[in-house]
C-alpha cells in the first residue's frame, strides 16, 4: 500500500511500452526444452537424451514407465519439425506421466533397503578410528596433491565422457596423456566449492540448508539432478525434499562426483566424512545417489591414513550398508577384480551387467571407479589410463579417484599432467570465476581445522 500511495503515473513513449525482454526469454526457454530431448555434452560433444534417461532411471528404480515411453516418438517428431510450442506442451505432459508412473511391487529395486537419513545409514555400518595430525605439512601436502589430481583428472575425462571403450580406442588409442589440449573448466567442481563456502559461513553448525543456500547463491545453472534441485530450492523446497521431489535423476552421479571434498575436510575420520557427504548429497539426491557420495567421501578420508589403495577401496565398501542396492554394485565390481587378471576383462562384465543404466547413473560409474583403483593399484598414471579407457562419465570418475590416489601415495604428479594446467582453476560460478589450486588447498585445510577443532 505504501508503494501504491507513493507511485505517480508515468506516460510512456510508444517505444518504451511492451515487454522488450520477452523474446529473449522465449528463446532461452525453447532451447532448454529442446535440450531435454537431445543435447550434446559441452566437454566431449557426446549425444544425450535426458528425458529418456529420466524414464530409464525411473524404470531402474522400480516404476512402470511404459506410458511415458509411449510419448517418446511424438516428442522426437516435434523436435525434428521445430514445433516449439507443441514440444513445450508435450514435454510437460511427458514429465507428468513419467513422475506419476505406478510402482512395480515385485521389482528387484524394492528388495533392498531404502536409506532416508544418515542416522538410519549410520546404524548399519562400523567405522574404523584413526589418529591423524592436521597441524603439520603432511595435511597440506596431501590436500594439495588431491586437488591437483582432481583437476588434472577432470581435464582428462572431460574429453571422453559419454563414450565406450571401443570407440575411445578408435579415436585416441590408449590414453596415457591428455587426449587434447586441457583446460580446467568443469561443472562438477562447482558444487564442492559451494560446500566449502557453506562451511566457511556456518562452521561446525553447518546444515544441508546452509549448503543449499550456497548452491542458489553461487551456482547459476545445473544439469539433470542438480537442475531439478536448484529449481526446487528456488521455490523454497529445501533438503531433503529438494533431492527427491520431481527428481528422476536422484540416483545419477551428481552426488557421487563431489564426495571427495568431504573426505578432505575430515581426514582420517570416515564417519564424519560420511556425515557431511550425506548432508551435501541430500540437497540433490536420494538413497543410492547419496550413498555414492558417501563412498567417495570415505575413500578420500582414508587416503590420509592408508597408503594401500586397494585396502582403501575394500574398507570403503564395508562402510556401505550391505542391504542397499549400491552395495551390490561396488561389491560386484570388487569381486570381478578378484576374478580377473586385467582391468578390461573385469570391466566388460560390469559394463554388461549395468548396460540398462544411463551413462550418467551412479552404478556403472562406481563400478568403473572400483576397477580403475584396483588395477591401477596406487599408480596415478595407470589409474588414469584405466578410468579414461572405461568411458562412461569419465570426468566425474577420474576426478574422484585421482584425489584418492594422489593423497594416499603422496607422490608428485608427472609434469605431463601439471605443466599444461599450471596453478589456475576456472569455473562458471558467481563470485568465483578463477582461483589458484594452491590457495584452494590452503583454504580447504583452514576450513578442515575449523570443523575438527
Task: Give a brief outline of the structure.
This protein is 60% helix and 3% strand.
Name the helicity range.
55-70%
Uncertain stretches: none
Q: What Rg do the Cα atoms give?
A: 23 Å
Total helical segments = 24
Major beta sheet, strand line-up: 1-2
Instruction: Give the rounded overall mean pLDDT.
Output: 96
Content-based structural category:
mainly alpha
Which sheet architecture does the biggest sheet show? 2 strands, antiparallel
Number of strands: 6
Query: How much of the polypeptide forms β-strand, as a percent range?
Result: under 5%
Describe this protein with a few key phrases:
453 residues, mainly alpha, two-stranded antiparallel sheet, 24 helices, 60% helix, globular
Give an overview of the whole structure.
The protein is mainly alpha-helical. It has helices spanning 2-6, 22-37, 50-60, 66-69, 72-81, 84-99, 118-122, 137-158, 165-172, 189-202, 208-218, 225-234, 241-244, 260-265, 270-281, 288-302, 309-318, 325-339, 343-353, 362-376, 380-390, 394-409, 415-421, 437-452, and strands spanning 39-40, 47-48, 163-164, 391-392, 424-426, 434-436. It has a two-stranded antiparallel sheet with strand order 1-2. The protein has a two-stranded antiparallel ribbon with strand order 3-4. Strands 5-6 form a two-stranded antiparallel ribbon. Helix 19 packs antiparallel against helix 20. The longest helix has 22 residues, at 137-158. The model has no long low-confidence stretch (mean pLDDT 96).
Give the helix/strand layout.
Layout: H1 2-6, H2 22-37, E1 39-40, E2 47-48, H3 50-60, H4 66-69, H5 72-81, H6 84-99, H7 118-122, H8 137-158, E3 163-164, H9 165-172, H10 189-202, H11 208-218, H12 225-234, H13 241-244, H14 260-265, H15 270-281, H16 288-302, H17 309-318, H18 325-339, H19 343-353, H20 362-376, H21 380-390, E4 391-392, H22 394-409, H23 415-421, E5 424-426, E6 434-436, H24 437-452
Antiparallel strand pairs: 1-2, 3-4, 5-6
